[in-house]
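Sequence only, no structure available. Ideas?
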Amino acid sequence: MTDSTVFIAQMMGPILFAVGIGVLVSKDYYLDVYRNLKNETLAVLTAGIIATAAGIVLVLNHNTWMTLPEMLVSLFGWIVLIKGLVLLVFPKAMERVGANFAKAGYMNACGVVVLVVGAYLTWFAYLVG
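Reply:
I predicted one. Tokens follow.
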């Protein structure tokens, strides 16, 4: 296990855990955030730039697939990078995907997945790693 895995999990775990709880207890707020993104074009552009930069940093510094924590950290880096690029290149498509996602009622399932991954990474980073 690398020190970078533990370090990144220490940052990502609590954030994902908090977002997961937030999605579950404040679902309407998160749905409003998605719905209002089409009116916040500068925010979408800024989020795309930040996500792309963060994804590049994560992928360049942690692209290891040996253990579960390493896989989760690496997968998260690739997801952030791809989402950032999609926001920059195809912002309207991302808007449609988000709208369809919200309409289909996947928010609770997504919240649970993010909560569980965040709890696992937090547990790993602070108690095991």
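Residues 3-25 form the longest helix (23 residues).
Hope that gets you unstuck.
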